[in-house]
Amino acid sequence: MISFESVSKIYPDGTHAVEELSLEIATGRITVFVGPSGCGKTTSLRMINRMIEPTHGVLSIDGRDISTVDAPVLRRGIGYVIQNAGLFPHRTVLDNVATVPVLQGRSRREARLAAAELLDRVGLDRNLAKRYPAQLSGGQQQRVGVARALAADPPVMLMDEPFSAVDPVVRNQLQDELIRLQADLGKTIVFVTHDIDEAVKLGDRIAVFAVGGRLAQYAEPAEVLSRPADDFVADFVGRDRGYRALSFVTGDLPVRPEQTLTLGAPVPRGAGSAAEGISADHGRWILVVDDDRRPRGWLDCAAVPVGHPVGVDDLVLGGSLAAPDGSLRRALDAALSSPSGRGVAVDADGAVVGTITAAEVLTAIEQSRGPDKVTT
Ligand SMILES: Nc1ncnc2c1ncn2[C@@H]1O[C@H](COP(=O)(O)OP(=O)(O)OP(=O)(O)O)[C@@H](O)[C@H]1O
What we know:
- With 376 residues, the chain is of the alpha/beta class.
- Helix content is 32%, strand content 23%.
- It has two domains: 2-248, Rossmann fold (3-Layer(aba) Sandwich), CATH 3.40.50.300; 260-365, CBS-domain (Roll).
- The strands form four sheets. Strands 6-7-8-3-9-10 form a six-stranded mixed β-sheet, with helices on both faces. A four-stranded antiparallel β-sheet has the order 2-1-4-5, with helices on one face. It has a four-stranded mixed β-sheet with strand order 11-12-13-14.
- Strand 15 (342-346) and strand 16 form a beta hairpin.
- It binds adenosine-5'-triphosphate.
- Adenosine-5'-triphosphate (ATP) binds at residues 11, 13, 15, 17, 35, 37-43, 194.
- Residues 2-237 form the ABC transporter domain.
- Its EC number is 7.6.2.9.
- One of its GO terms (molecular function) is ABC-type quaternary ammonium compound transporting activity.
């Protein structure tokens, strides 16, 4: 556990960057520091590895006051990842990752072997190992940055806006991979971002900082969204927090059985759905599945003749064809982004269970609100 006890940082010019910060960071979890620019997130993060010394207060790791530990010794157990990766420009990808283990006394050969494995782990093609950082995309550089921080196998990882400089699609992938890595490795990760969506997605707990280095709220993401501690947090979290909070609300989705057509089969006469609550426009779409009943796409029956063998090129992919994780936000999104107006629910093997319309998800949302309802 990392513990801040009444920690303050006043810079020599008098700036109060962090004010009396007290918080405990759980081992093996992802804790996110989030807040607007200049509110002391980076300063707080860097006090954990003593890149910045506190003015007052005590910071300890597993009960040991870190001011009593030599900074280089302390840093051996703490990986550090920053925006734009901060890679050594004149070293290859592989040597960037192998640097710290070599400094720690491992042979170059051994360190390079371990580095190659780490590249796999962070989803980087080994063919890139001999390139230099400038020959990589921003997302690839960030992956190298993460691999490099993991190379010394530190129990703690500090990550300062590591994904801010990449485009939203790559950013999403990097976030997913971090969650996957964390599930595998169980590191204690402290992650700084100014993006509340990123904080909510990654954090087991999130600390919302206000200007002046004040900790405004420290709680699980669902609680920050549903019960902001004060007006500052409510404002920072934003207007559509009610919708975002749906990510954490799961409910029994009343899915309806859906008629399906197997890929390659001829389109039958009268295909489509005439079920209650489905408009004629939506009813002309039929769900096409593969031999294992996994959804492949939607077929517009009005666009193909009866008897036509359905092929992949005939299909329209809706955002609905993702495995639902049970969150009502995913279900609503699936229904809204499907050409048929129906989101597809699948089982653990990815086979179709049934479908649900946006109106039905809204009913499920209403039912799930109960006394703990999300205020907007
Ligand atoms: N070396 C320094 N000397 C004086 N003031 C500093 C120094 N470093 C940071 N500050 C100030 O301390 C405050 C907190 O900065 P910090 O970088 O910790 O914030 P942050 O929340 O990480 O911001 P950002 O999201 O913009 O990186 C800011 O007002 C900043 O200007």
